[in-house]
Amino acid sequence: MISWKNFDTLTSYQELKNIEAIDLAKEMSGDNGADRIRNYSVSMGEGLNFNYGARPVSEEILSALANLAKEAQLAEKFEALYNGAVINTGEKRLVLHHLTRGQLGSDVVAEGINKRAFYMEQQAKAKDFANKVHAGEITNAAGEKFTTVVQIGIGGSDLGPRAMYLALENWAKVNNTHKMRAEFISNVDPDDAAAVLSKIDVAHSIFVLVSKSGTTLETLTNESFVKDALAKAGLDASKHMVAVTSETSPLAKSDDYLAAFFMDDYIGGRYSSTSAVGGVVLSLAFGPEVFEAFLKGANTADELAKNANPLENAAMLDALIGVYERNILGYPSTAVLPYSQALSRFPAHLQQLDMESNGKSVNRDGEPVCYATGPVIFGEPGTNGQHSFYQLLHQGTDIVPLQFVGFKNSQMGEDVLIQGSTSQQKLCANVAAQIIAFACGKADENRNKNFEGGRPSSIIIGEQLTPESLGALLAHFENKVMFQGFVWNLNSFDQEGVQLGKVLAKRVLAHETDGALKVLSDLLNI
Amino acid sequence: MISWKNFDTLTSYQELKNIEAIDLAKEMSGDNGADRIRNYSVSMGEGLNFNYGARPVSEEILSALANLAKEAQLAEKFEALYNGAVINTGEKRLVLHHLTRGQLGSDVVAEGINKRAFYMEQQAKAKDFANKVHAGEITNAAGEKFTTVVQIGIGGSDLGPRAMYLALENWAKVNNTHKMRAEFISNVDPDDAAAVLSKIDVAHSIFVLVSKSGTTLETLTNESFVKDALAKAGLDASKHMVAVTSETSPLAKSDDYLAAFFMDDYIGGRYSSTSAVGGVVLSLAFGPEVFEAFLKGANTADELAKNANPLENAAMLDALIGVYERNILGYPSTAVLPYSQALSRFPAHLQQLDMESNGKSVNRDGEPVCYATGPVIFGEPGTNGQHSFYQLLHQGTDIVPLQFVGFKNSQMGEDVLIQGSTSQQKLCANVAAQIIAFACGKADENRNKNFEGGRPSSIIIGEQLTPESLGALLAHFENKVMFQGFVWNLNSFDQEGVQLGKVLAKRVLAHETDGALKVLSDLLNI
C-alpha cells in the first residue's frame, strides 16, 4: 500500500537533519579520498558509471538516505507509475514515457488501448516514413529527395530533440549514418523562423510540426510563417509537412500534412524525446536504427532504476543526495557541466526537465509544502565554463553542487598530441582536476588565492557519447527528477505555472488590459 | 578622497535593512501599478529604456539606495577607474575597457603610452585589415577571397564575441553588411574543432587566434589542431591566421601570423568584446563601420553611467536594486531573459561577466567578507523559456529576480499576421504578460493553479536590436557589474578562482598525482 506523505513528516527527514554534515575537504584528502572515489560508484549501464565520491555523504548519511528511500517508497511509487497509476494528480493522467522505450512492468491499458503497443506502432510508422524518405520513395513534388528536416516546436518539443540531435550529429557523421541535416524553429520571435528559412533549401526540406494539443501559439504561428515561405517559393506545403500530435488534436486528421505521428496525454513535453516528438526528427536525421539504439539505452537506465536499493540505483541515489544537498545543506541551485561539446544544449534540456517538473510549492494533493523543492538548474560545457562562471563556483559566497559528465573517448576521433597529451586527455584531466579542486580546495596565505574547498560534485563517466549512452544519460536524469518529486511529494508531471502568462498575453493581444499591463503594452507598441 | 569600505560597515546598509519590504503584488495592482511602470523608467540612450516598475522598491527604498550610492562613492569610484586608478588590486592593474569605446575622463597614460590612442590604433589596424580582406587585397595563397572567419579563443575571447556575432548576424544580412560568415572554436574537446572544421571551407577561411597571454592551453591546442588541418589541406597556415594578443606575448611577433592585433593587461577577458578581441572578428564579419556603431552605443551607455544620481543612471540603479535583492531580500540567483532569438547567447556572456567578476568571498584587500556577493546568473531567450523553466520562476519555493529585455521591432522584418497579430506583437505581448504575472500573481481556490506573485523583474525596452543598441546593452551590464563590485567592495577584475584547476590539470597530465585525483585520472583513462 502506497502512502503519499510530505517530506517533512517522515522520520528519515528528522534522522537526516540530526546527522552532522561531513567535512568534504577532509574526507576527500589522502587515502580516504582515494577510497571514496574508488568505492562510491554505481554502474548505470551502457558503459556509464555514476561516481559520487565527492558528494557530501558518509556511510551514516547514505544509510539515512536508504531509510528515506524506503520510507518514501520510492521503488513502489516508480512501480505504480510504470504500471499505469494516475501519478499526474493535477491533470488526472497516467505517466507513461518509460513505455516508449520498453515494458517495465505489466501491460498498461488505457481507453482500451495497450499503450506500449501504441507507442511501438508510432515508432514503426516513423521508421517506415524515415526509411522511405531516405530511399527516395517519399520525395518533394519534383520527385527530388529531401535533404533537410526542420522541427517546429517549443519547450519539450524543442529542447530535448534539439539537445539529442546536437549530441549525436558528429557521431552520426563519422559513423556514416547522418542522413539529413536537422534545424529547429521554436521562438515566436519572427527572426527565429526567418533566420532558419534563410539558411536552408526549403524545396528539399521536410517540416515536422510538433504540438501535442495542436493549439500551441508559437508553433502554429511558426507553421504559418513556414507555409507562407513555401507558398512564396511556389511549393505545396502539404507535401513538405508532417505532424506530431495527439490523435484528438485538430492536426491529427488534417490534409495539410504528408503524415501524422501520435503521442498522447500520458507523455509530458519534457519527457517526450523518446516518443514520436523526438522519434520522427531523429529517425529522419540519423536513421531509425540510431533512434532505436537511443531507446535501448534509455530502457537500460529505466530497468536499473527499478532497484529498491539506492546504492545500486544511480538515479535514485543521485536524487536522494540532491535532496540532502537542497533541504539539509540548503544549497539553492545545481550546475550541470558536461565535458563534451556535443552536449552543449543538454544542460538547457535538463533545466526544463528539472525546473518545470519540481519547481512547485504545493504537494500532489494541492496543499502548500513547507520545504524547498526543485533547485535552479544551469550549466554549460566544460572546459568552456572553467573560463567563465567557475570563478563563483570556486570562490563565491554560495555553494553550488555540481553534476559533471565526462567520456574517455571523443566522438570524431580526430586529435592532436601537444605537450605530450591529446586534446581528449586534456579535457579529461581538466574534469578530474576540477572535482578535486572543488572538493579539497587549497590553503593560501593570500586570501584572494585561497580555496576553501568543500564544494560537492559527482561525475558520470562514460566510454563514449553514443546513441545508447545518450539514452541512458537522458533517462538517468528523468528518473532522478521523478524520484526527487516523490520525496518532495510533488506532482512532477503538470505545469500549471505556465498558464497565467498565456492568459494575460491573450488579453494583451485582444487589447483587453488595464493598469500596469496596459502601460507596459503601450510601451512595447502592441 | 575615496574610501573603500565593506558593504556591511555602511550606514546605508543598516538603513536598508530597517526598511520594511514592499508587497510587490499589491503595489503593482490597479492605478498604482500603472503609475509605477509609467514613472520608474530611465533612459539608457540608443533607444533603450530601463523600466524598474516591477522591481521590489518604493520611494523610501530608492532614497536609501541613493544614500548607498553616495556613501559607497559609486560615481567617484567609476571616475577613478576611467581616469586610470589601480582598481584591479589583486593584479595591481588599471581597468581600461571603457577606453576602447571613448574617452570618459582625462588622458590615461601607462608605461608612457596614451592608452586611448593605443586602443584606437589597434581598432584602426583591424579596420584596415578587414577592409583589405573584403576588397580582396589580402587573399589566400591562390589569390582568392576569404569568405569565413573562425575565432579560436575561450572564456572572454569566445563568449562575448560569439554572443555579439549572433546578435547582429541577421541584422547584418538584411542590412547588406554581412561580409563573412563567422564560426567559433573554444573547447579543448577535440570534437569542437573537428566539427567546425568539417563544416567550413578551410581554403577560404581566416583564423583569429585570441589569447592575451599567448599561453592559454585550450587555445594553443586548438591552434595546433587547425594548423594540422591546414597542412593536411596543403595550405600554409601563416597565410590563414592572425593573432589577437598582448604585445609582450609569444604570439606578438611571430611569423606564424598574417597580422597581430594588440590588447593589454588592462582589459579583462570578459570585458574585451569592445577591444581587438571582438573587433577583429566583428569587423571581418560585418565590416568595421558596424563595429564602430557598436562601440558608439557602448560609449553612450558609459557616458550615462557617470551620472552620480542613480535615478538618472540605469546601470547604477540596476546594480543597487540587485544588491538590495541579493543582500536584504536574500535572493540567491538572477535570470536574464531576452525576448529576442538573436540574443540567444547573451545570457551565457552575462553569466561569465557577472559570476566571474563578483563571485568572490574576499574584498579588494583580500579580507573575507561576511555578506553574500555575486548571484548565480542564468537565462534563455523568451518565449522559449516560458515553455521550460518559468514553471519554477512562477511557482517554485524560491524567488528569482528577472531581467527582461525586449524590442518593439524585429531585426529581419519578415512577419505573419495570425489571429489579428504579428509574431513580433505576440512576442512583446508575452513579455508584458509575464512581468505582470510574476509581479501580481493570481489567486485561485485550486492551490495548484494559484500564483502568489511578488516576483520582481525589470525590463529594458528598445526600438530594435542594432549595433548601437547592442553596444549600449552590453555596456549597461558591464557597468552594472562594476557598480555592484564597488558596493560589495570586491575586486571585480581578477579571477584567482580559475587557477587551482589549471594547476591540478597540469599535474594530472604529467602523471604527478596521488589520492583521489590519481584514482579519478585512472577512471578517466588519462
Overview features:
homodimer; 526 residues; alpha/beta; 6-stranded mixed beta sheet; 5-stranded parallel beta sheet; 18 helices; 15 strands; 43% helix; 13% strand
Describe the 3D structure:
The structure is a homodimer of 526-residue chains. With 526 residues, the first copy, chain A, is of the alpha/beta class. Chain A contains 18 helices and 15 strands. Chain A has a six-stranded mixed sheet, sandwiched between helices. Chain A is globular. The interface between A and B is large, with 160 and 159 residues.
What is the CA-atom radius of gyration of chain A, in angstroms? 24 Å
Chain pair forming the biggest interface: A-B, 160 and 159 residues
Mean pLDDT figure of chain A: 97
Give the total of beta strands of chain A: 15
What form of chain A results from the Cα inertia axes? globular
Strand order of the largest sheet of chain A: 1-2-15-12-10-11
Task: Please report the distance between the alpha carbons of the first and last residues of chain A.
Answer: 55 Å
So what's the oligomer here? homodimer
Helical residue percent band of chain A: 40-55%
Structural class of chain A: alpha/beta
**Number of helix segments of chain A?**
18
What is the percentage of strand-forming residues of chain A?
A: 5-15%
Unreliable residue stretches of chain A: none
Please summarize the sheet with the most strands of chain A. 6 strands, mixed
